[in-house]
C-alpha cells in the first residue's frame, strides 16, 4: 500500500494542479518519512484558520502526492487542539471529495489529525503561534510531523502580541515526543530570550538561555508532561510545557475462525 504507483502519482499531479486555492495564514512545512515535505503556503495556495470559528480551509501541497485538503479540520480555541481530518486528493474522487478512485488502489487519502495517543495542537508563545504534534495518514503517508528541530508550521491565528520589552520568550520541545515501552527516557531542549532563571519540572534549575537534558518517564514509564518555567529580574514570568507519550505495543493472538486482532 505504500507504493501507490507511478500512474496514480502522475495522474494526481496532472489533475490537481488546477485546483483553485488561495493564500492562507498557515505557513511552513510538515514532514512524513514516506512522502517527504508537505508545504502549507505557496504562490496562489495555502491553508487558512478562521479567526472566529477555528475552521480550517484550503490546500497544502506535496510534490509526491499532490494537493492535501484541510477543509474538514478544526481548531478549538479553548484547548488549542486540532481535530478532524485532512485528505490527500490523490485518494479522493472528483473535487477532492467522495469515494476513492479505482487507480488509488483502495487508499482513501484520509489523514487523522487527532487520535487517542497523538494529535496536532496550536502552541501559543509570546513570539507567536505554531502547529505542533503528529497526524496519521495510514500506511501510505505514515506519521506526519508538524514541526521539528529545523522546520515548523506557523499560524497567524494567534491570540498573543509580539514580545514586549523586558519580556521572556522560550522554545521548549521533547525529542522523541513518542517512545515505545519499555523505553523510559526522552530528551528535552530549550532556547530562551530575556530569562534570568529557568527550571524544568522533574529536573530542577537549568541554564536560562539554551540547553538539552534527559528526562525520566518513571518506572514503569508513563506518558509525562514536562514544564519549563522562567523569570527575570524585571518581574516577567513565562511557562510552557511539552508532552512525551509512551506507546505500548498491542499483542494479540490470532485464533482460526476467531474475531482476529
Question: Which helices and strands occur, and which strands form pairs?
Answer:
Layout: H1 6-16, E1 26-32, E2 36-39, E3 41-42, E4 45-49, E5 56-62, E6 66-75, E7 81-88, E8 110-112, E9 114-115, E10 118-125, E11 128-136, H2 138-141, E12 143-146, E13 153-155, E14 169-175, E15 178-180, E16 185-193, E17 197-200, E18 204-206, E19 210-216, E20 224-231, E21 237-247
Parallel strand pairs: 15-21
Antiparallel strand pairs: 1-2, 1-12, 1-13, 3-4, 4-5, 5-6, 6-7, 7-8, 7-10, 9-10, 10-11, 11-12, 11-13, 14-16, 16-19, 17-18, 17-20, 20-21
* Proportion of strand residues: over 45%
Biggest beta sheet summary: 13 strands, antiparallel
Strand tally: 21
Q: How many structural domains can be distinguished in the coordinates?
A: 2
Low-pLDDT regions? 1-23
Percent range for helical residues? Answer: under 10%
Distance between the amino and carboxyl termini: 20 Å
Mean pLDDT: 84
Q: Which radius of gyration do the C-alpha atoms yield?
A: 21 Å
The outline comes out as: globular
Amino acid at each position: 500500500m505504500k507504493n501507490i504507483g507511478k500512474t496514480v502519482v502522475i495522474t494526481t499531479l496532472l489533475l490537481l494542479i488546477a485546483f483553485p486555492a488561495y493564500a492562507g495564514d498557515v505557513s511552513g512545512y510538515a514532514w512524513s518519512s514516506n512522502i517527504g515535505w508537505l508545504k502549507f503556503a505557496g504562490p496562489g495556495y495555502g491553508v487558512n484558520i478562521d479567526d472566529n470559528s477555528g475552521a480550517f480551509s484550503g490546500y497544502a501541497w506535496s510534490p509526491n502526492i499532490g494537493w492535501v485538503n484541510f477543509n474538514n479540520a478544526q481548531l478549538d480555541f479553548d484547548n488549542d487542539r486540532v481535530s478532524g481530518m485532512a485528505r490527500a486528493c490523490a485518494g479522493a474522487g472528483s473535487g477532492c471529495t467522495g469515494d476513492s478512485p479505482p487507480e488509488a488502489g483502495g487508499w482513501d487519502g484520509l489523514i487523522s489529525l487527532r487520535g487517542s495517543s497523538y494529535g496536532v495542537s496550536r502552541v501559543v508563545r509570546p513570539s507567536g503561534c505554531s502547529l505542533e504534534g503528529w497526524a496519521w495518514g495510514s500506511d501510505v503517508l505514515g506519521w506526519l510531523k508538524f514541526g521539528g528541530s529545523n522546520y515548523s508550521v506557523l499560524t497567524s491565528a494567534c491570540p498573543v502580541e509580539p514580545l514586549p520589552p523586558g519580556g521572556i520568550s522560550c522554545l521548549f520541545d521533547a525529542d522523541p515526543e513518542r517512545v515505545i515501552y519499555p523505553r523510559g527516557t526522552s530528551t528535552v531542549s530549550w532556547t530562551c530570550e530575556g530569562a534570568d532563571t529557568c527550571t524544568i519540572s522533574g529536573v530542577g534549575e537549568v541554564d536560562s538561555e539554551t540547553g538539552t537534558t534527559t528526562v525520566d518517564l518513571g518506572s514503569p514509564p508513563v506518558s509525562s508532561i514536562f514544564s519549563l518555567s522562567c523569570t527575570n529580574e524585571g518581574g516577567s514570568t513565562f511557562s510552557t510545557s511539552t508532552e512525551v507519550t509512551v506507546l505500548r505495543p498491542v499483542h494479540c493472538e490470532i485464533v482460526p475462525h476467531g474475531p482476529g486482532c
